[in-house]
């Protein structure tokens, strides 16, 4: 069968395809037009990228699938955001997924754009069995130190779940709980549940810092999220500290 599609129509058709073995693809390979062959190359790159992403997704699901296979129905992925900033809270999140979860784009929140994170955040909230968040403010952090404050926030997050997990996958921070735990270094790159938790925690905290930027202008919180950037330090020097600055973090006390 000889194709009579224009190059524009070929591109439109290829956008709707998701398999390299589609009969249309085989037919297009015989088309000698340069525009068609360029469209095929772009199509093949897109499909290969999808295949790689799917394989990576399945690999990051291996811990959850292993636990599910041994009868652990509720596996909670845990992560935190905000241990390093000079200002703002630390936020922890726990996410419980099931085998139907299929958001291939879920990975370490630091590897995603702001638009990707926001889109995935909304989809995670929609598709997860349960999501829980805990926020600990400046006073709590200064009282307990950031590491212990993070641990306590994570414990509170788990205890607040309606579906109590029988297994926890946590990113690098061991928790004093009578629940079996798998502690992973860079867990948000190795576990889908932890990656989902990292996205939820980061999006929640980022929105908080955007709000704080309106209450405390001059520190560039909307962009630095409380980290010690040049603009943030310039704001501290000019305006002093705010109620969300951590007094236990250097150099914040210098600006009191």
From TrEMBL:
Signal peptide: none annotated. GO terms for molecular function: manganese ion binding; RNA binding; RNA-DNA hybrid ribonuclease activity. Keywords: Cytoplasm, Endonuclease, Hydrolase, Manganese, Metal-binding, Nuclease. It is an enzyme of class 3 (hydrolase). It comes from the Bacteria. Belongs to the RNase HII family. Endonuclease that specifically degrades the RNA of RNA-DNA hybrids. This is Ribonuclease HII. It comes from Paucilactobacillus nenjiangensis.
């Amino acid at each position: 069968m000889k194709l009579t599609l224009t190059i524009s129509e070929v591109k439109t058709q290829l956008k709707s395809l998701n398999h390299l073995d589609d009969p249309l693809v085989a037919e297009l390979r015989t088309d000698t037009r340069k525009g068609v062959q360029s469209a095929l190359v772009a199509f093949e790159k897109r499909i290969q990228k999808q295949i790689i992403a799917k394989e990576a997704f399945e690999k990051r699901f291996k811990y959850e699938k292993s636990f599910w296979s041994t009868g652990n129905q509720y596996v909670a992925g845990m992560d935190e955001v905000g241990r390093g900033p000079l200002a703002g809270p630390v936020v922890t999140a726990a996410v419980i997924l099931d085998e139907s979860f299929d958001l291939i784009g879920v990975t370490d929140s630091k590897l995603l754009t702001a638009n990707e994170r926001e889109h995935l955040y909304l989809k995670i909230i929609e598709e997860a069995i349960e999501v829980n968040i805990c926020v600990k403010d400046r006073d709590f952090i200064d009282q307990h130190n950031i590491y212990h404050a993070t641990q306590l926030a994570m414990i509170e997050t788990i205890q607040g779940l309606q579906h109590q997990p029988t297994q926890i996958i946590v990113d690098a921070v061991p928790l004093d709980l009578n629940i079996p735990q798998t502690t992973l270094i860079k867990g948000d790159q190795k576990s889908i549940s932890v990656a989902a938790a990292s996205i939820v925690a980061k999006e929640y905290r980022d929105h908080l810092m955007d709000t704080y930027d309106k209450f405390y202008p001059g520190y560039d919180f909307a962009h630095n999220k409380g980290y010690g950037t040049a603009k943030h330090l310039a704001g501290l020097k000019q305006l002093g500290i705010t109620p969300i600055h951590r007094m236990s973090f250097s150099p914040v006390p210098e600006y009191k």
